[in-house]
Amino acid sequence: MKLGERVAVIGSGAMGEAFIRGLLRGGFVTRDELVATDKSPERCAHIEQSYGVLVTADNAEALRSADTAVVAVKPQNIVEALRELAPAVEVGRHLVVSIAAGVPTAAIEKRLPPGTAVVRAMPNIAALVGQAATGLCRGSFAHDSHLKRAQKLFEAIGRAVVVPENLMDAVTGLSGSGPAYAYLVVEALADGGVAAGLSREAALFLAAQTLAGAARMVLDTGRHPAELRNWVTSPAGTTAAGLTVLESRGIRGALMEAVLAGTRRSRELGEAGTGGH
After folding, report:
1. Do the bridges between strand 54-56 and strand 68-71 make them parallel or antiparallel, or are there none, so unpaired?
2. In whole angstroms, what is the distance from residue 249 CA to residue 231 CA?
3. Is the torsion defined by CA of 165, 171, 173, 176 positive or negative?
4. For labelling, which of 129, 211, 225, 240 has a CA lying 20 to 30 Å from the CA of 142?
5. Is residue 277 over pLDDT 70?
6. Which residues pair with 97 in a beta bridge?
7. C-alpha angle with apex 170: 224 to 275, nearest 5 degrees?
8. How many CA atoms lie within 13 A of 262 on its CB side?
């Protein structure tokens, strides 16, 4: 799916590189339609050699040659990045998409020319394998067309959903932090498999593939997880025995509390102006 526009990736760390790789691999842009920036000469050389795209340390220069800027810098570096981008922004032409965690659109807009279209996004680490879950929200001057442009971008690294900005902390608490919860579950399941006699290698594979397959069924069938769970739970069977243990230990409530705690912490960090998750 071609984007039909030029994209500047501002900051070529792990997430920036995931965008570059996803955009090129999916055919969303050609190498000539993509420019990347980074302050590290080593990262610039790595990106240029790995992907064959133009790389520069000059953020404004990169934006002038693009229609959309994906600002993929750490929250503590976004003020400097926006200061460098601001002189190059053409209102009505440029869309600025920020993935800086915890930085609201209003804080971005006030550092750019009045009327700049801004979209804020919260992807997760699965972007590195093209399977990110991303929440998106628009700023004061972004229209539906800007959101559609941003959604296409995030289809290069996974899937995305639009939410009101006041729910972005909830996105952080759920899908932003969620991979860590899933890794914990995979680790625990594998430990159980080892305790039951499986090799560590086989247990880790079976645990990870089981979670990946179960998640795929939810997404592909559109059925509620409770319905899918009932499909595989026979009366007095092995799954019923395992579920009884999980429910008695409160795993459902623990996961819900984890999401709520992550949401509260995201809000605290945002209010403190530090961001992060």
Report:
1. unpaired
2. 23
3. negative
4. 129
5. no
6. 70, 119
7. 150
8. 23
Do residues 56 and 35 touch, judged by C-beta distance below 8 A?
A: yes
User: Are the beta carbons of 109 and 140 closer than 8 angstroms?
Assistant: yes
- In the chain, the amino acid numbered 269 is L
Decide if 121 contacts 93 (C-beta within 8 A). Answer: no
66: buried, middle or exposed (CB in 10 Å: 19+, 13-18, 0-12)?
buried
Six token digits for residue 24: 């090129």
Q: Which helix (H) or strand (E) holds 161?
A: strand 158-162
CA 112 to each of CA 79, 82, 89: distance values in angstroms, whole numbers, following the listed order: 10, 7, 7
Q: Return the closest-CA partner of residue 7 out of 71, 83, 92, 76.
A: 71
CA-closest candidate to residue 165, choices 126, 95, 109: 109
Under a CB-based contact definition with an 8 Å cutoff, are residues 96 and 69 in contact?
Answer: yes
Q: What's the chain's average pLDDT?
A: 94
Angle (deg, nearest 10), helices 41-51 and 14-25:
20
265: Cα separation from own chain's centroid? 18
Question: pLDDT digits over 115-162, tens only?
Answer: 999 999 999 999 989 899 999 999 999 999 999 999 999 988 999 999
Q: Residue 102: what residue type?
A: G
The reported pLDDT for the residue numbered 192 is: 98
CB 68 within 8 A of CB 151: no
Q: Is the pLDDT at 263 greater than 60, yes or no?
A: yes
Give start and end residues of each alpha helix (H) in 125-237: 144-154, 168-171, 178-195, 200-221, 225-231
Burial profile 232-244: b = 16 or more Cβ within 10 angstroms, e = fewer: eeeeeeeeeeeee
